[in-house]
Amino acid sequence: MGIYWQMAKNGQQLMLEDADRKERLGMVRETPRGFDALAVTFGYEPERARRDIASMEEAKTFVEAFKPWVLYIADQDIEVEPEVRARA
Known about the structure:
By secondary structure, the protein is mainly beta. Helix content is 11%, strand content 39%.
């Protein structure tokens, strides 16, 4: 099982992967004004999205702070891999 950032068309996606599934947990995309960030949820929670963040690292920290992987797994203390993976 692993949680990692993966390159995407306009930014990066936070992914959960294990033997049975691959789920997108969040995303950061670059815009002309900065970076937009989103942590997934099963309901309507607008506070999980933010626009115009100054840097990619700040946007990724915003997404990771919600620990969106707890929607799929019980282990809240799992670490996000430090390396960004290439686009699939």
